[in-house]
């Protein structure tokens, strides 16, 4: 009976799992519009040589769209053990709004070396991180955008409106007691510029006039907490 060789692909958001051979050294990329390009470093943490494929998508993890306003280079590279390389994103200068951020996803797909051993399972891990293109005319900082969020409680629905031109990625949203300590929480991923989200809030002990707190992911990939957020009814 012939030997069996199977390669299985998995993808992960953020910087990827600890056992990934190719490590992406950031959880997000902020592409400032005044810069000619943006970049992220990747490193081969394994003891084998890997090929690496890179591309951008606009949110569909199964797609590989062509002719996007931002190009990624190199689309294919070879990384020796412990070798580091830069993946660069370059905006063509046309096709994206100038008054708000645009969101893309950077895909880094590792391609493992061929294995001649029979009955071997190979795992090819793909890492996806967010790329935010921030036009140069936007002067608002992310912390200002987070503070500008509008929160409204309608019955058991929490409505969040983002009037800013920036995306805000939440870590968590919590109710808040008198000591400022969060008790119950709900999970919301991200709110886009100009977007309004309606979130079921049955698990939160919220009332009009009572504060809540939330945490968001800052430009460096860390978590920033905002407390004493006023609720409107």
List keywords for this structure.
2 domains; Immunoglobulin-like; five-stranded antiparallel beta sheet; six-stranded mixed beta sheet; 18 strands; mainly beta; 233 residues; disordered N terminus
Helix content: under 10%
CATH topology of the largest domain: Immunoglobulin-like
In CATH terms, the superfamily of the largest domain is Immunoglobulins
The best one-word shape is globular
Largest sheet: 6 strands, mixed
Which CATH C-level class of the largest domain is it?
A: Mainly Beta
- Rg for CA atoms: 21 Å
Report, as a whole number of angstroms, the end-to-end distance. Answer: 70 Å
Task: Work out the strand percent.
Answer: over 45%
CATH level-two architecture of the largest domain: Sandwich
The number of domains is 2
Subcellular location: Periplasm
Protein name: Fimbrial protein
Family: Belongs to the periplasmic pilus chaperone family.
Main location: periplasm
Question: How does this model look, in words?
Answer:
Residues 1-20 form the signal peptide. Belongs to the periplasmic pilus chaperone family. It is found in: Periplasm. It comes from Bordetella genomosp. 4. Residues 160-224 form the Pili assembly chaperone C-terminal domain. The protein is an all-beta fold and 233 residues long. It folds into two domains: 22-134, Immunoglobulin-like, CATH 2.60.40; 142-229, Immunoglobulin-like (Sandwich). Helices cover 3% and strands 50% of the residues. The chain contains one helix and 18 strands. The protein has one helix spanning 142-147; strands at 5-13, 22-24, 28-32, 38-44, 50-57, 70-73, 76-79, 84-91, 102-111, 120-134, 150-154, 157-161, 168-176, 182-186, 190-191, 196-200, 212-217, 223-229. The strands form four sheets. Strands 1, 3, 5, 7, 9 and 10 form a six-stranded mixed beta sheet that branches. Strands 13, 14, 15, 17 and 18 form a five-stranded antiparallel beta sheet that branches. A four-stranded antiparallel beta sheet has the order 2-4-8-6, with no helix packed on it. The relative contact order is 0.18.
């Amino acid at each position: 009976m012939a030997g069996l060789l199977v390669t299985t692909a998995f993808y992960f958001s953020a910087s990827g799992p600890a056992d990934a051979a190719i490590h992406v050294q950031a959880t997000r990329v902020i592409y400032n519009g005044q810069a000619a390009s943006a970049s992220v470093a990747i490193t081969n943490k394994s003891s084998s040589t890997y090929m690496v494929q890179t591309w951008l998508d606009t949110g569909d993890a199964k797609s590989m769209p062509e002719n996007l306003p931002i190009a990624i280079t190199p689309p294919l590279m070879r990384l020796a053990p412990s070798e580091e390389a830069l993946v660069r994103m370059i905006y063509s200068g046309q096709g994206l709004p100038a008054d708000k951020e645009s969101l893309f996803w950077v895909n880094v797909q590792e391609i493992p070396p061929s294995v001649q051993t029979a009955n071997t399972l190979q795992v090819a891990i793909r890492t996806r991180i967010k790329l935010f293109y921030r036009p140069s005319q936007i002067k608002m900082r992310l912390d200002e955008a987070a503070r500008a969020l509008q929160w409204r409680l309608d019955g058991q629905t929490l409505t969040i409106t983002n009037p800013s031109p920036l995306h805000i990625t939440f870590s968590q949203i919590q109710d808040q007691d008198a000591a400022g300590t969060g008790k119950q929480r709900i999970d919301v991923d991200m709110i886009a510029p100009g977007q309004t989200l309606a979130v079921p809030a049955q698990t939160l002990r919220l009332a009009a006039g009572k504060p809540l707190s939330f945490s968001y992911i800052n430009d460096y990939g860390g978590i920033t907490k905002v407390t004493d957020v006023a609720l409107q009814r």
